[in-house]
Amino acid sequence: MNKLNAIDWIAIILLAVGGLNWGLVGIFNFDLVAAIFGDMSALSRIVYAVVGICAVYVLAISGKLGKN
Fold it and tell me: Which among 3, 30, 40, 54 could disulfide-bond with 14, CB atoms 3.0 to 4.6 Å apart, if both were Cys?
């Protein structure tokens, strides 16, 4: 059985946070990352990049997610 490790869980959580942020943008036109770190500041760009990397990582481990 393939269990999720700590990196898997961190990637899933960051991906969920990124999804919630995009939901806020789509529904309320409010970008939480930009509000916290500044509009396209270096730090906000890093956050966006990390969330994107997490999305690719979660896609790569998606086979592990479907197993018991």
Answer: 54
The DSSP letter of residue 67 is -
**Alpha carbon distance 41, 35 (integer Å):** 11
Q: How many other CB atoms sit within 10 Å of the CB of residue 48?
A: 17
The full set of domain ranges for the chain reads 6-66
Task: Summarize pLDDT for 40-63 with one digit per residue, the tens.
Answer: 999 999 999 999 999 999 999 998
Closest to 20 (Cα-Cα) out of 47, 39, 46, 2: 47
Residue 66, both tokens = 């479907």
- Please say whether the beta carbons of 33 and 21 come within 8 A: yes
Structure tokens at 36: 């916290």
